[in-house]
Amino acid sequence: MSAVMKWIQCIRGALPVLIGCAMIVSASGTWAVEGRPDRPWTDDVIYFVMTDRFFDGDPSNNIPEGSDPALYDPDQQSINLYHGGDLRGLERAIQSGYFNRLGVTALWLTPVVKNAWRSNYDLGDESKTGYHGYWAQDFLDIDPHLTSAERLDGTAYAEGREGRLEHYRDFIRLAHDHGIKVIQDVVTNHAGPVFFYDVAGDGEFDPNNREQWIMPFRQEPYENVVWMNKPEWNLRRVEPTGPTEVLGVTVPQSGAISRLESFSRRGFSRDSLGKRDGEEVLCDFFALRTYDTSPEAPHFADLVSDFVEIKAFYIETLGVDGLRIDTVKHVHHEFWDAFTEGLRERLGADLAARVLLFGEVYDGDPNVLGRFTYRSDWPENRSPAMDSVLDFQFCFAVRDFVRVRGGGHGRPHSVEEALRARISGIGHEGRPFYNPEPGLDGRNAAAKAVPFIENHDGLNRFRVRDVDEDAPLLGTAILLTTPGIPALYYGSEGAIADEHGELFQDSETGRITLFDRRGERRAQDIETTRAFRNTAALTAARAEWPSLRVGAWTPLWAGTDDSGTGGTLVYLRHFPGEIESVVLVAVNAAADERTVNGISLAGAEGIEWPATGTFAPLTLDGFETPGEVGTNGADLEALVLPPRTASVFHFVP
């Protein structure tokens, strides 16, 4: 049996999109939230949103009680300050049907937990706020910047932690009512800048002393660390400190998360992001505080257990459907073995099979990416660690192909290479890059990989200076017609440009507010753009054609300039032996029309081509629609592709 056939057997089973109403019992006996959308993750389209930068639906939470007013920018211009986006803003979008019209079926939110609100020293020694959510202070609370005092019906929430968690639960229920899953972004690598290095030895925190925030990396832990206590910036000891009762549920905690001894305390290494010598799992990220996740650490078992119980609470009691896990390669591999195994056991097989665990491994090397879908004790234990990872190799490849200065094109081969690596590539250790062992849901890591083309980190937006409007549309077309669970980045549906971003330059300048207070970008305006219409057409095609979601991927053509077809990429999606499932995708990133001759379809495994047939184009609103393309047995007739377009065809015998 070929690699493609094995892959198809693992992921086949594209079920109808259903909204389930059955309750699920976890291993602990706790009832899970009703109404989880009942469909495989391979049927989903993810929308990744920075909650603070989507829409300010409730201005009353912009300056939480007791917080420093200077942390909030009412003009929504400074990317280092809070802009006011919140859960209420997302609720309004859900209620309006915005995400349903776009074809989005899962919302991935930046971390919602209560954050440290300011760091005086960060990248480039400039002050920043924790608007993005990745600076946890209380892992079992929701940040008050995100929640409202009242429900959508006007009734009051309880005060404090209880009310904030109630609002988050209501948000998840609302999403479920509209058929949308919720993915919670979580961090176990680090907390926010919650303690300082007491260089003076007097126990006094000086926010203007850089050394108290950032110390140079060393192999031995610093002992001069003291919890901060600056409430207006929410700089204080990590919580929870012990067992906590919320929403009628007691969440067991040993307190390991909140002990200084559980942190690495080794200071900051500027080049740690690229290191692979162990330093990358020990050092702080700038002023953030890294946990010591070594399996030899005396707190290891307690730390794992505490994080497992917290994540189980969000999944069981609040209804979270999946976890995106931050900074995976900066945590000891053995921690992921213990955490993923412990969480699945804690949830029980039925619920765990419905929860997606995918990690961020910021690396373009498939050897590194796929490593975390395996346990560290492989091959003794072949079961998956992470269900899947974000596919950075794919992201880099699509950018290399269509994100070129002035509307040109790069190498289509890079996209083909990335997909081959994910589906059937063999790594340095003689095993597939991605763990072929199916998870509890019957699907393997390659099937559940999460491809994307832009994000909130240094990669920034797809469209920056000197990149035309066509480029993100082409990238999105590839994203939505190739294997995996595609993740769109908020604003991509309007081909939003970052006017401050530069090609090939890392930046966070694209973290703009999408629906801003000035009314420069409104939902009704974005929905009329080519980008929105085209994205919606592609998600509709993906929903209609199961082969676009979970079918085999067969590359047919990656044109080179020498052949006169430079900038063209052609591939099939299909199920082996099912001629009626065949979909052909053709991308022309060149600035002029391209005609591709001599494409053989014989590589489509299991397909018996009739003597004649036709590929009929699907209408993609936003791209010029090409004409029909005939076939002569297993040969494709001349494929004429309009400039800067993506085209999708289905086979008609």
Key structural traits:
single chain, 653 residues, alpha/beta, TIM Barrel, Immunoglobulin-like, 8-stranded parallel β-sheet, 7-stranded antiparallel β-sheet, 15 helices, 23% helix, disordered N terminus
How does this structure look, described?
The protein is α/β, with parallel strands linked by helices and 653 residues long. It folds into two domains: 3-546, Alpha-Beta Barrel (TIM Barrel), CATH 3.20.20.80; 551-652, Golgi alpha-mannosidase II (Immunoglobulin-like), CATH 2.60.40. It is 23% helix and 18% strand. It is built from 15 helices and 29 strands. The strands form nine sheets. An eight-stranded parallel sheet has the order 19-18-17-16-9-4-3-20. A seven-stranded antiparallel sheet has the order 21-22-23-29-25-26-27. Strand 13 (244-246) and strand 14 (249-251) form a beta hairpin. Helix 2 runs parallel beside helix 4, helix 6 packs across helix 7 and helix 10 (392-402) packs antiparallel against helix 11 (413-424). The longest helix has 19 residues, at 300-318. The protein starts with a helix and ends with a strand.
